[in-house]
Write a structure and sequence with these properties.
The structure is a single chain. This protein is mostly helical. It has a single domain, classed as Up-down Bundle (Amino acid/polyamine transporter I), CATH 1.20.1740.10. The chain contains 16 helices and no strands. Helix 3 (35-44) packs antiparallel against helix 8 (200-215), helix 5 (84-131) packs antiparallel against helix 15 (358-384) and helix 12 (281-288) packs antiparallel against helix 13. It is globular, with a radius of gyration of 22 Å. Pfam families: Trp_Tyr_perm (PF03222). The chain crosses the membrane at residues 22-42, 48-66, 99-119, 139-156, 163-183, 203-221, 242-266, 293-315, 336-353, 365-383, 395-416. It is found in: Cell inner membrane. This is Serine transporter.
Length: 417
């Protein structure tokens, strides 16, 4: 086959869906569906039904354009084997790479803290409401849970990765089944709340960080982009655009169906109670529903989702902190890794004991850093890096993505004021 014919064949292949594409679409989807989804209905529904409709409409394009841009950023490296870290260093130099690495660590590390709080509250709620026991002292319960989860990561990393990967699809199935199960409980109480049109934009603005957090699948984008480049070469852009688009549509359909089903089955007052109790929506449903399937399965699913998310983010945070320390010291690798481990475990334990608002932590710590890397960095590169010129998205896409990224970051300031 001539080079021209090979190029035509590759173009034709890259424009059609294959089983390989579908499996990658599921992988991107599975990476995003985690513990964040369990807190999304509480915040997304807090502003009422109509702001939730607007959030549902912007969730898919917001997610797709951001992840499409990040995939193109990885593809812009001159080295086909480069991951996102290598590409950052290639485009922005060593200093730029250090800044991005630092930002990436602070995008992951707060999520570990969030899940330390989340797992403690989930187990405490289960023991009190479903088992009928008195609350275990928070310092003891959180310490045992965090130490156990961390021990599983350290001493059984490969097994844990396999287990968490296998847990994604049962979790998705159970959440879908729960969404359908709640349909008979749907009521109009949320739709009867008259929106305050003067605060409508701010309600959307303040909810964007949680959308960013809940739909985020950037950790897998680097390996995903490398794989498409290996198979499709210069035509990988069309394929990454297609697959990230499919994953975004799946996420919007599944996650927003779950959110709408939960929100429509509850009242605004109930969502406020769930927020005040600082528990996931599944734990709240378990405490208020008499059906055994929800009472017992809800907390177990929440436990599984938070645990699996903790494993992945703990590994990322540990590797990121170890890398940052190693770049500024000549200490032995083993010592650096132990220091990083102790820092993350101890701070996670302290925060779990303190029990700050989980939604507040997502909005103020997790989402803004994710938005900086996922939404703003690729757009900045499209404007400033020559190698990104041919990977530019449309002007409208760039503006929309930048606005969403800035909104996710500035909402922290607005919320504080």
């Amino acid at each position: 086959m001539t080079t021209a014919n090979a190029s035509v064949a590759s173009n034709r292949t890259s424009s059609k869906w294959t089983y390989h594409d579908f499996t990658w679409c599921l992988s991107l989807f599975g990476t995003a569906v985690g513990a964040g989804v369990l807190f999304l209905p509480i915040k997304a529904g807090a502003g009422g039904f109509w702001p939730l409709v607007v959030l549902a409409l912007i969730a898919a394009p917001m997610t797709w354009l951001a992840h499409k841009g990040l995939a193109r950023f990885v593809l812009s490296s001159k080295n086909p084997d480069s991951d996102i870290t290598d590409t950052v260093e290639e485009h922005f130099g060593k200093t730029g790479a250090n800044i991005i690495t630092l930002a990436y660590f602070f995008a992951i590390y707060p999520i570990v803290l969030i899940y330390g709080v989340g797992i403690t509250n989930t187990v405490d709620s289960f023991l009190v409401h479903q088992v009928g026991l008195a609350s275990i002292p928070r310092w003891l319960l959180s310490g045992v849970l965090i130490a156990t989860m961390t021990g599983c990561v350290i001493y059984g990393k490969e097994l844990m990765l396999k287990v968490t990967s296998a847990m994604v699809y049962p979790l998705v199935f159970i959440l879908l089944a729960l969404s359908i199960y709640l349909i008979p409980d749907w009521n109009t109480s949320m739709m009867e709340v008259t929106p305050d049109w003067s605060t409508f934009p701010s309600v959307i603005w303040l909810a964007i960080p949680l959308i960013v957090f809940s739909f985020n699948h950037s950790p897998i984008i680097s390996q995903f982009s490398k794989e498409q480049r290996r198979i499709y070469g210069d035509n990988a852009v069309a394929k990454t655009d297609m697959i990230t688009g499919g994953a975004s549509l799946m996420l919007m359909a599944f996650v927003m169906f779950f959110v709408f089903s939960v929100v429509l089955s509850l009242s605004p007052a109930q969502l406020e109670i769930a927020n005040n109790q600082n528990i996931s929506i599944l734990s709240y449903l378990a405490n208020t529903h008499s059906a055994p399937i929800i009472s017992y399965c809800g907390p177990l699913v929440a436990f599984a989702a938070i645990t699996s998310s903790y494993f992945g983010h703990f590994l990322g945070a540990h590797e990121g902190l170890s890398g940052l320390i190693k770049s500024h010291t000549k200490a032995p690798k083993s010592k650096v890794e132990k220091i990083s481990l102790l820092f993350i475990v101890i701070t996670t334990w302290i925060v779990a004991i303190d029990n700050p608002s989980i939604l507040g932590m997502i909005e103020s710590m997790g989402a803004p850093m994710i938005a900086a890397i996922l939404f703003l960095m690729p757009i900045f590169a499209m404007r400033k890096v020559p190698a990104m010129k041919k990977y530019q998205t449309s002007t409208f896409s760039q503006i929309f993505t930048a606005i969403c990224g800035i909104a996710a970051m500035t909402s922290v300031i607005y919320g504080a004021l």
